[in-house]
Write a structure and sequence with these properties.
Shape: elongated
Order of helices and strands: EEEEEEEEEEEEEEEEE
Distance between the termini: 15 Å
Radius of gyration: 17 Å
Number of strands: 17
Length: 312
């Protein structure tokens, strides 16, 4: 669906689904590192995507899923693993899961959430844990025992994301329901980390970067872009810098494969989004502003979205 193929790098904690729709898609790296863990690839459900809201639901800071779209998209993020855009591209739940967060089929007093399958790994399975709080969309939250334990103070049907490395200072994010909708936030349902993390994130405009502070607007697979917490230190994640996940790039950039960025010697390198109508002004020498979507395939409002890449 993308006119120019972008090489997408998907390695990371929260892996967003990689399916690309752009000419530049072959060069883009889809993975995103999320405050929560790795997401392999997500699947997305398409609802109506109205406007991108600047809220976001994943990156490590606070998130408010106010997006107007109920569509979902696959994703790949930084903590996770492999190749999609932000979260992993598989949906269906990780092996060893004992419950379904979209159904919330745990005993009374417990909730189904995403946890790490073993110490040192990001979310990958679903387990029942005690309900220890009443936090809902956008409420502050903390996680006991580390950010992948699931022992947070969000309510039934919510998970604490966008925390620091110790699981503190996060925001409650809604799980998608069984129909892959987000009834309490109006955001987009995106499925990450082998299906263990079906969450509601706000959609956004990569040219406007209309997400909350500390978040960027990143590709989420399929036709969508979602707000997610950036996972970069000061002075890192700039144009041409190495990346493994898309949210290892500063807002306004995405992680592309090495053959899309001049002199890139890493698994991937950060490259700017650009306006197709405005041309190559923001691109590096040797790059062109390539339409993210093939002609006639862009969702309403995204017709001008491009990314700087070396033409293939």
């Amino acid at each position: 669906m993308r006119g120019f193929s972008l090489g997408v790098v998907c390695v990371g904690a929260l892996v967003v689904g990689c399916g690309g729709k752009s000419d530049a898609s072959a060069t883009a790296t889809a993975g995103m590192e999320s405050e929560s863990g790795t997401t392999d690839g997500g699947s997305t459900s398409t609802g109506s995507t109205s406007n991108a809201t600047s809220e976001t639901t994943t990156n490590g800071g606070s998130m408010s899923a106010t997006g107007t779209s109920s569509t979902t998209s696959a994703a790949t993020t930084d903590d996770g693993t492999t190749g999609c855009s932000f979260l992993n591209c598989n949906d269906g739940g990780g092996g060893g899961s004992q419950c379904d967060p979209m159904v919330q089929d745990c005993p009374d007093g417990e909730k189904c959430t995403a946890v790490s399958p073993m110490v040192g790994e990001p979310w990958g399975i679903n387990e029942c844990v005690p309900v220890n709080g009443a936090g809902v969309v956008g409420d502050p939250c903390d996680i006991e025992g580390g950010k992948y334990t699931g022992l947070d103070d969000c309510a039934l049907g919510y998970i604490c994301l966008l925390t620091d490395d110790e699981g503190m200072g996060g925001t409650c994010v809604e799980f998608c329901d069984a129909n892959m909708n987000c009834p309490n936030s109006g955001a987009m349902c995106v499925v990450y980390n082998d299906g263990s993390l079906p969450i509601c994130l706000a959609n956004c405009d990569p040219l406007l970067q209309d997400c909350a502070a500390d978040q960027g607007c990143y590709p989420s697979g399929g036709d969508t872009f979602v707000c997610f917490k950036t996972s970069v230190d000061i002075g890192e994640g700039g144009v041409g810098d190495g990346c493994n996940y898309t949210n290892q790039c500063q807002p306004g950039l995405m992680c592309l494969s090495p053959d899309s960025v001049p002199d890139c010697l890493e698994n991937g390198c950060c490259s700017p989004f650009c306006s197709v109508m405005e041309g190559n002004a923001n691109c590096l020498d040797g790059q062109e502003c390539v339409a993210y979507f093939e002609m006639g395939q862009a969702p309403p409002g995204y017709e001008d979205v491009g990314v700087c890449a070396i033409p293939m």
